[in-house]
Structures are given as structure tokens and as C-alpha cells.
Amino acid sequence: SAMHIHTSVVDTKSGKNIFAEKKGEETPAFYHFLAGMQNHMSGAIAVMAPYVNSYRRYVPDFAAPINLEWGRDNRTTGLRIPISSPSARRVENRLPGMDCNPYLGIAATLACGYLGLMEQRDPRPEFKTSAYIDSDDIPTNLGDALDLLEADVALTEVLGVEFVKVYDSVKRNEYKEFLQVISPWEREHLLLNV
Asked: How many Å apart are CA 111 and CA 90, to the nearest integer?
């Protein structure tokens, strides 16, 4: 299960979607927002996949994203652009799971997009085929995700240094506890090999 977050940005003065030009083309802001998500989402995964089991859904060919690629109506990419009118153009973040706190998931998504708007970098090219390829865009466990969050200084500043410090501490303690548990699988399959 997933909690897809759809994001568009509206200019407060004009009321227009900043992702669409007057004639309907994508704006530079649209591409910058995408680039921010690609450049900072690896660190934000710790918030969007907050538990050890959260990482079990990131498996190729099971309708869950395993990458930070983007594509128009491409359900194999982590960042999907749904087919819509220019005024409704949006970015769908498909990475958060149902176990994600919705407020934190939205905050992390907006923080990544905001950083993209500030940095004004370009995203990788659009992915037009299946994006279920070997990808190291996103971490595969909570420990690695927390390391990436801690390393992303810009994302930490936007989310709040104190928040990230406390969140990191709580989640690292949870992860340490998990690593101390010997699972039934380990007992069944590894005990005879020791």
C-alpha cells in the first residue's frame, strides 16, 4: 500500500499553477521542482518509509517505485506526472507508504520541491519505458535512509535541525532494537550452519 502525494504550486498573486506556461508547456519551475525531488528525496525516504518493514515494498515489478525517475503517466517511476490539463499539472510522489505520517510525508515532499525551486537545477531526462531497473536512488533499509537524511544538510535545514535530530535519534534507537532480535527465519535457516 502507498500514500501517493500529488503536488502542484499556485502563484498567490495570479492564482495560476506555476508548473504550466500560458500555452500549456511545462515551466522551468516544474523541472526545478522535479530536480529537487530527485536530488533530495533519498534523504527524505527516512520520513516516508519510517519503519523497518517499510522498505519491503520497494521491490521491482510489484507496482511500487524503486527509483527517483520521472515520467508522464509512467507507473514504474517514483515521480509520476499524471495526464491532466495544464492548469492541473502536478507531480505525484509515489514513494511514501501507508505507514508514513501524512503531515511529515507532505512536509518532506514540499521541502524537496522547494529546494529544487531554490537550486534551479534540471532533472534527469524523462523515463519513457519501464523504470524497474537496478537502482540505488533510494535506500533499502532504515539505517541507510537515516544516514542519507543526516547527510542532506539543505533538507535538514528546511525540515528543521531540531526535528531531524530528534527524529533521527528515535528511529536509530528503533533500528538498533530491531537488529538485536533474532528472527524465526534465522533460527530455522542459519542455526544448523553455525
From this structure: 16
